[in-house]
Write a structure and sequence with these properties.
Distance between the termini of chain B: 83 Å
Helix content of chain A: 40-55%
Oligomer: heterodimer
Radius of gyration of chain B: 25 Å
Number of domains of chain A: 2
Order of helices and strands of chain B: HHHH
Distance between the termini of chain A: 39 Å
Chain lengths: 381, 104
């Protein structure tokens, strides 16, 4: 066997025996370290998977939607702008979209009510019919061919037959969706026939979008165009480290690691100092002492890192991030039941390792180095 | 004769197993099924959806990409920020990006 390897193994044996003598302390350190890494890795995996999901799923979102702004707020847009937008060079198709929100007093949930586009044959509805999302199905305990009763804000009760339910696979985009026919939608929300929520555009060439936006700004004054790229960009910043709660979480984890490091760097226990003094006195070199303590730091931090990472992956992708669910659900009544497609990035894992394993190992070695270069006699005293 | 297991052997084995488990995670992530991703993408295309239904409690968290204002008190005077959703979703970037010819 390679001499150097054998030597390191003996050092590891010695370190492990030494750690077993303080097993309570080392076990607590390992558990806390593992827990911090588990929380950080869970959020990292979840955030990355949801961003990846948004990028893939919303790749077919409308290429551009034109909103009307009144006093800086999104307002209904007049139907007269549909032909105007249709005639903008580069626009293949312009269609008024109808969607809005409904607060259901029965269960306190918010629904997104929407009229399916005219070219969507699969979700075509007759007046008096609705298609409901999986969140509403679960919340109102509805099945196909049953009736959904909704009270409009002017008091009238609408009796709508549940024609179909949207697949539970699509819950992440459709949990609170309530699809309705256009006549029902206009009657339910008391909307005049000549207005839409916004206008969706299909564009021939994506490279022309900036030019088309410029033209729309001139032809439809007071409008705002939200492009698919804008939508994707919005979702790339979701769960970013700058957001309030995640910043607090990251801050708490950093503070926890600083406390670890401070505990290690502030000084060695009398027992540890005596141990180093004895080792030096019986002929150990400084490099041996450092190697021994390197193994101590590396085994705790690397072991905690690997275990925390595996547990976090299982938590997010096999148990649907159950511990994060209460945070994500917030005050909402409807929360989608979804399974994310597993996604893991080497760079993120390496970054997490760099910010957890390296400082811990360094914080273990530095005070030992200070003790190890001192005279054994002085250390033991 | 019973073989004596050295602590380092146990530790090396444990670390090797954990390392192998992490490698398995990467393999699993690369080879896993889409968990309904295709169905979601198809529905988005059919209905022209713009946002994920992750936070359904307020307009600006349900449709962050379409929201006009991303602030507390937008619906009523005592409507505080919807915590924690409001702290997990950032305001749409395009609301701040100046564009020629388009009123923001």
């Amino acid at each position: 066997m390679n001499t150097s390897f054998a030597r390191q193994r003996y050092l590891m044996d010695f370190t492990l025996h030494s750690m077993l003598r303080r097993k309570g302390r080392n076990l607590v350190l390992f558990t806390v370290c593992c827990l911090v890494i588990f929380i950080l890795a869970s959020v990292m995996f979840f955030g990355q998977a949801i961003r990846q999901e948004a990028k893939t799923v919303l790749a077919d979102a409308p290429e551009a939607t034109v909103q009307n702004l009144v006093m800086g707020r999104h307002a209904l847009i007049n139907a007269k702008w549909v032909p105007v937008l249709q005639n903008v060079r580069g626009v293949r198709h312009a269609e008024g979209r109808l969607w809005g929100y409904y607060y259901d007093t029965v269960n306190g949930a918010n629904y997104t009510v929407m009229v399916p586009p005219s070219d969507d044959t699969e979700h075509r509805l007759q007046p008096g019919e609705v298609i409901i999302g999986p969140g509403i199905v679960a919340n109102r305990n509805l099945i196909r061919d049953k009736y959904l009763f909704l009270r409009a804000n002017y008091g009238e009760i609408f009796r709508l037959k549940v024609k179909d339910r949207l697949s539970s696979d699509s819950a992440l985009v459709s949990a609170d969706l309530l699809l309705m026919s256009e006549p029902d939608f206009r009657k339910f929300f008391q909307l005049p026939d000549d207005v839409f929520t916004d206008i969706g555009l299909t564009i021939r060439n994506a490279r022309e979008i900036p030019t088309i936006i410029g033209k729309i700004g001139v032809r439809v004054p007071g409008s705002r165009v939200v492009t698919r790229a804008d939508i994707l960009r919005t979702y790339q910043s979701i769960f970013s480290w700058r957001e309030g709660l995640l910043l607090a979480l990251l801050g708490a984890s950093i503070v926890a690691f600083v406390i670890f490091a401070f505990d290690k760097a502030a000084g060695l226990s009398g027992e540890e100092r005596r141990e180093i003094g004895i080792l030096k006195a019986i002929g150990w070199e400084t490099s041996d002492v450092l190697a021994m303590k390197f193994w101590e730091g590396a085994l705790v931090s690397a072991g905690a890192f690997l275990l925390g990472l595996v547990l976090a992956y299982g938590h997010v992708f096999f148990f649907q991030a159950g511990l994060l669910e209460q945070v994500l659900k917030g005050w909402a009544v409807i929360y989608p039941d979804f399974h994310l497609k597993p996604h893991i990035e080497v760079l993120q894992v390496v970054t997490l390792a760099f910010f957890t394993v390296v400082p811990y190992t360094a914080a273990t070695i530095i005070p030992i180095w200070r003790a190890a270069v001192t005279d054994p006699d002085a250390v033991m005293r | 004769m019973m073989m004596h297991l050295r602590p380092s052997s146990f530790m090396i084995s444990a670390m090797f197993l954990l390392g192998a488990a992490v490698v398995t995670l990467f393999v699993h992530a690369c080879s896993s099924t889409d968990n309904g991703l295709a169905a979601r993408a198809r529905l988005v295309g059919q209905l022209g959806l713009t946002d994920l239904a992750l936070f359904t409690e307020a307009r600006y968290t349900r449709h962050p990409s379409q929201a006009d204002l991303h602030s507390a008190f937008q619906d009523q005077p005592v409507s505080l920020d919807h915590f924690p959703s409001g702290s997990l979703v950032s305001p749409p970037r395009h609301n701040f990006a100046p564009r020629t010819g388009v009123q923001q």
